[in-house]
Amino acid sequence: KNEVEQSPQNLTAQEGEFITINCSYSVGISALHWLQQHPGGGIVSLFMLSSGKKKHGRLIATINIQEKHSSLHITASHPRDSAVYICAVRSSNYQLIWGAGTKLIIKP
Amino acid sequence: DTAVSQTPKYLVTQMGNDKSIKCEQNLGHDTMYWYKQDSKKFLKIMFSYNNKELIINETVPNRFSPKSPDKAHLNLHINSLELGDSAVYFCASSPQGKNTEAFFGQGTRLTVV
Predict the structure, then answer these.
(1) HEC assignment per residue over chain A
(2) Smallest Cα–Cα separation from B17: which of B67, B83, B75?
C-alpha cells in the first residue's frame, strides 16, 4: 500500500462540473502539497497546506489532519483545467512522498 | 524571471555516454531536490540537498551523482547511461523548514538510445 493514495486515478467530466480529487496518507506529515502537471510536463505548485482550507480562484484545497485526508476541488471546471493533479506530503526529514496523480480531462 | 531552471529541456544521447543536467534556483532556498518521473508518471525522489549538504539519497545507481557547488545549484551527473535511464527528471527547491512550499523546474526529458 502506498503511503499516499489518490482517487480517482482518472476523471473525465464536462465543462462546468464541480470536480473533487481526494488524497489520503498514512504517515505523519508537516505539510501537504497539491501540484498540477500540464500535458507538456511542467509542474506547478497549487497549494501547500498544514491545516484548514485554502482558496485560489476556482481552486479550493482542504485538509483534515486527524483523518489524514485532503481534497482538491475545482469549481466551474474548464478544458484548460485538464492536467494531472498530484498530492504530495512532506515528512519531517524534507522528503516529499508523492501520490500517483489523478489525470483530469474536462470536455467542452 | 524563472525561479527554478533546468538545462537542457531535452537530452538525447547514446548508451554508455556521460551526461549532466543542470539546475539553478534564484529563490534563495536552502533545499534542493532531484526527482525522476517514471513511465507511469509517478515521481520518485532521488536526492535532496540542504545548504549544499546531502540529506536524502534514495536507492539509485552509483552512476547517478549529484553535485552542489553552491546553495543555488544542484546538478545531476549520470555516468554510463543505460536505456532504463530514459525518463523525465525534475529539479525542485524549497526554503528550509517543515511547512514550506516546493517549486519545480520544467523538467528534462532524457532519452537514451
Answers:
(1) CCCEEEECCEEEEECCCCEEEEEEECCCCCEEEEEEECCCCCEEEEEEECCEEEEECCEEEEEECCCCEEEEEECCCCHHHCEEEEEEEECCCCCEEECCCEEEEEEC
(2) B83
Residues of A in contact with B55 (CB under 8 A): 93-94
Q: Which three cell numbers stand for residue B66?
A: 549529484
Mean pLDDT value across chain B: 86
Chain A residue closest in CA terms to B32: A94
Condensed to tens digits (0 to 9), the pLDDT of residues A46-76 reads: 888 888 999 999 999 999 999 999 999 999 9
Nearest to B45 among A30, A41, A95 (CB): A95
Nearest CB to A94: which of B43, B55, B107? Answer: B55
pLDDT above 80 (res A108): yes
The alpha helices in B1-113, defined as continuous H runs, are: none
**What pLDDT score does B97 carry?**
58
Amino acid (1-letter code) at residue B34: W
Range with lowest mean pLDDT among A39-43, B79-83, B104-108: A39-43
